[in-house]
Amino acid sequence: xxxxxxxxxxxNVAAVSEPPPPEAMGDFLSSKISVIALIxxxxxQEAEKGVAVTVAENRRLRDLFARVxxxxxxxxxxxxxEAAKGEDADLRVSILDAANASLRDVLIALxxxxxxxxxxxxxxxxxxxxxxxxxxxxxxRLDLPPMPAT
Length: 150
Description:
Distance between the termini: 31 Å
Number of helices: 5
Structural class: mainly alpha
């Protein structure tokens, strides 16, 4: 499970909403605050680019499905053509994430079918899908801040 930005921020709220008991002071409290700060820092990056990255990824997946559907859709029960029809009209993060999860499920099914086919065309599509995984990961990358030495 990948927690959403909303879930992470609600966790931060819960972590700071009540004063800690005396036994949770000192190093424990300092570490807790550092983790809250790190989550907030990474959440800010996600808030800045998350919607744009998800919309672009969804578009890229739908384009791929539309292009390969003629050759592969029969093996996948029409899932490629159906997934290619969608669009991201609602830009709420929860809606985009649900669409993205569905599209990724179709991508995984396509990749499994491609890996099971020994043809040269399948090998080329396999390489394209693997490259796409890398592109998707790079687009979602979050940078960690410099950490103090302990």
